[in-house]
Design brief:
Blueprint lengths: L4 H11 L4 E4 L4 E3 H18 L6 E5 L4 H12 L3 E4 L6 H11 L3 E5 L1 E2 L2 E2 H11 L5 E5 L9 E2 H6 L5 H9 L7 E7 L7 E6 L2
Parallel strand pairs: 3-4, 3-5, 4-10, 5-8, 8-9
Antiparallel strand pairs: 1-2, 6-7, 10-11
Helix pairs in contact: 1-2, 1-3, 2-3
Length: 195
């Protein structure tokens, strides 16, 4: 189709800006609201220094923040590495080693799991991890960035939106890498392009 995943979100928002599109246990969002939050996050990620083709781990449950994170990474030409929420140090360390990921968007807590001890362990093994962006954290999560804060503190100026247009990836570029199981018990990676 020649479209990127970011283009698909934008088309949905152009056609149905007021139509409710994303619902989780906390928020309900229209297509237009999802695009606005995605664009703000994408600009925030660029401001952090995430570059085209950088690998970004996304480890979030079925929350609306997954939508913003996934599409924001797509819009800036970086590559999403999808992690399921139950992955722990063994799987995460392996996928960082396989993909060369340098950023990680991760829940602060989900169900009975506190991810901060996991994050600390992974960072000890992978000092090349430049950015950890937490989601639905309580209070100040320094030294980590906060997805909510990146969205809140970013303005959708003409200049910022022009930067997003410049970063649109080629549809034949790898868009994301999804994990797959295997006989070794260690996850493997399958890359997929936008097309």
């Amino acid at each position: 189709s020649g479209l990127t995943f970011g283009d698909i979100l934008d088309r949905g928002a152009d056609i149905h800006p007021e139509k409710e599109a994303f619902v989780d246990g906390k928020t309900r969002l229209t297509c237009g609201e999802a695009r606005e939050k995605t664009n703000k996050l994408a600009i925030g990620l660029m401001d952090l220094g995430i570059q085209p083709l950088d690998r970004v781990l996304i480890q979030l449950p079925n929350w609306n923040e997954f939508v913003f994170a996934y599409f924001a990474v797509q819009k800036i030409g970086a590559i999403t590495v999808l992690l399921i929420d139950r992955y722990r140090q063994f799987e995460i360390n392996r996928l960082i080693s396989l993909t060369g990921a340098t950023s990680w968007i991760v829940a602060s807590k989900y169900r009975n799991t506190d991810y901060f001890p996991i994050i600390d362990d992974v960072l000890k093994e992978h000092p090349e991890m430049k950015h950890v962006i937490t989601v639905r954290g309580e209070g100040d999560q320094k030294p980590f960035s906060s997805l909510e804060r990146l969205i809140k503190e970013t303005e959708l100026t003409e200049g910022n939106l022009a930067r997003l247009v410049e970063r649109r990836p080629d549809p034949m570029q790898v868009a994301h890498m999804g994990p797959t199981g295997g006989t070794t018990g260690a996850p493997k990676i399958v890359p997929r392009t936008h097309n």
